[in-house]
Amino acid sequence: MTQQLTLPRTTSPAGRATDAPTLGVAGLVTVLLGAFLPMLDFFIVNVALPTIDHDLAAGPAVLELVAAGYGIAFAVLLVLGGRLGDAFGRRRLFVAGAALFALTSLACGLAPTAWTLVAARVAQGASAALLLPQVLATITAASSGAQRARALGIYGAVGGISVVIGQVLGGMMVAADLFGSGWRAVFLLNVPFALLTAVLAVPYVPETRASRAAGVDVPGTVLLTGTLLSLFVPLMEGRAVGWPLWTWLLLGLFPLLAAAFLTVERRAERMGRTPLVPLSLLRIPEMRRGLGIALPYFTGFGGFMFVVAILLQHGLRLGPVAAGWALVPMAAGYFTASLSGPRLVGRFGSRVITGGAVIQGIGLATLLATVLADWTHFSPLRMLPGVALAGIGQGLVGTPLFRVVLSKVPAERAGVGSGVLATTQQSSLALGVATLGTLFLAVSPTMGFAHALALVLAIQFGGSVIIAALSMRLPRSVA
Fold first, then answer.
1. Which pLDDT score is estimated for 9?
2. Which residue among 41, 73, 166, 205 is the one 20 to 30 A from 309 at the CA level?
3. Is the confidence at residue 213, as pLDDT, over 70?
4. What does residue 206 show for φ and ψ, rounded to 5 degrees?
5. How many CB atoms lie within 10 A of CB 170?
6. What is the chain's alpha carbon radius of gyration, rounded to the nearest angstrom?
7. 5 bridge partner residues
8. 325, 380 in Cβ contact below 8 A?
9. What are 268-274's contacts with CB under 8 Å, separation 24+?
10. Angle between the 285-310 and 414-432 helix axes, to the nearest 10 degrees?
């Protein structure tokens, strides 16, 4: 018999309060699979980029867009995806997002040219933005108490492990060259799993939505899109195209667009309308402080994974499989910490995040010392202690973080709250690739791989210190 998660109350399509159907284990597994696929695809392409370049003659600028186009579209549309789920039903948007993710993954796998692949990746990111916010929103709106805490803990574990597994699995798929598909298998693998997710969601995931459907905040959506694009496009493409004038103009527009977005959203909420991002959510201490931790955490995580993928293949000349397997100790450390995370949070509260930041910092410092001590013999084996410790620390930070941020968000605002958190997560991952990745690629020709990596690790160590300091301001007890 299916174990049940207790739901509070949701609304019927007609807007009447009803006793909602329960979310069983099958439903939870389904939504977590829906979360795993888009997060996996953020990084699975990293180890396939050299092969894509060889087959499609992409060139560095277009190749960066293959990686960045997905992340930019994903981050830009996440909050809108959460809002649409609130208004039209989260299961409905989840099913639509999963089906579109399958279709766009197929388009990526069959892309005949590099620019076709870029367009398909952007569309794939947009479909992921419809899918992912519904996962957190459904868990938040459809569970409570210890059951919600466990579900959010598992979600945090899935998010971190999917990033590492993405690069391991990507390397294996490229090397296996199934039926001569090469890099295309990285995308085609999504199709059956995304379709299965859509099919399972219909009987097992309950429909939830906000009690009062809010219209789409067009000015807010346009300004948020412009703000994120003005930051990510020049950061991700500037180095590859030689930093022309338009990249600096866009970066100059970023603070202006961000200020305009905040002004419009504040005014909309003050006038009684429903903005895309209700800034009143930031009055919730757990949300505000948790997002402050999420920014350096995911920025460092995203940058680390991208830099290590480049280092292993271009610096150490490893093949895609060996490059992927070098990160298995990190995945094992993350998974181990994630399993113990909920129990530790129950005993030590938010101080688990502080401990995780310290352990992550020790892992990064160990890896930094290994790099500087003897670069000529640097190898995945010598990386093992540092990346394993970093993985354990990241698991102890990431697993309870989602629980902290969403712990006090009202169920009727679950969609927009989840969208804000997911946008912070994906934007920060993309920001890590754009900043730390660009820095590494820019300085490695002159400084060499060893000192370029050491510089990036030192910056990430500083991020661990910031996370530890910010986590001390969180409420000790986690609801």
1. 43
2. 73
3. no
4. -70, 150
5. 28
6. 21
7. 23
8. yes
9. 268/217, 268/219, 268/220, 273/217, 274/214, 274/215, 274/217
10. 30
Query: Among residues 100, 102, 104, which one has the least CA distance to residue 116?
Result: 104
What DSSP string describes 409-435?
--GGGHHHHHHHHHHHHHHHHHHHIII
CA–CA dist 337, 400 (Å, integer): 11
Strands, DSSP E only, in 141-252? none
Contact 401, 297 (CB under 8 A): yes
For residue 380, pLDDT beyond 80: yes
Count Cβ neighbours within 10 Å for each residue of 406-441 and write b for 16 or more, e otherwise.
Answer: bbebebbbbbbbbbbbbbbbbbbbbbbbbbbbbbbb
* Cβ neighbourhood burial of 363 (10 Å; 0-12, 13-18, 19+): buried
Using CA atoms, how far residue 352 sits from 17, 329, 332, 467, in Å, is 38, 21, 18, 12
Cα 391 from Cα 164, distance rounded (Å): 10
- The Cα–Cα gap between 144 and 122 comes to 35
Residues 6 or more apart from 178 whose CB is under 8 A from it?
185
Residue in the block written with tokens 């099958």: 26
Task: Give the C-alpha separation, 154 to 151, whole Å.
Answer: 5
215 in helix, strand or coil?
coil
How much is the pLDDT for 254?
95
Token pair belonging to 93? 């948007």
CA separation, residue 18 to residues 10, 163, 170, 274, 352 (Å): 6, 38, 44, 24, 38
Residue type, 222: V
Scanning the structure block, which residue is given the tokens 């906000």?
A: 210
Residue 14: what pLDDT?
A: 38
Task: List, in sequence order, every beta strand (DSSP E) within 34-147.
Answer: none
Contacts of 278 (CB under 8 A, 6+ apart): 265, 269, 413, 416
Can you say how many angstroms the Cα of residue 308 is from the centroid of all Cα atoms in its chain?
A: 17
Torsion angle, alpha carbons of 466, 41, 407, 258, to 10: 60
Q: Return the biggest CA–CA distance within the chain.
A: 68
* Distance, CA of 176 to CA of 385 (rounded, Å): 29
Tokens of 374: 């003897």
CA distance 377 to 13: 63
Q: Vertex 155, ends 306 and 464: CA angle to 5°?
A: 50
Is residue 188 within 8 Å of residue 181, measured between CB atoms?
yes
Q: Which two tokens stand for residue 75?
A: 């981050």
Backbone CA torsion sign across 466, 469, 474, 479: positive
Entry field: residues in the chain = 479
Nearest CA to 344 out of 387, 396, 418 is that of 396
- 19-41 confidence digits (pLDDT tens): 554 777 888 899 999 988 988 88
Could you please report the per-residue DSSP string of 349-389?
TTHHHHHHHHHHHHHHHHHHHHHHH-GGG--HHHHHHHHHH
Token look-up 């970093």 returns 390
Handedness of CA 212, 216, 219, 221 (dihedral sign): positive
| Secondary structure (3-state) at 13 | coil
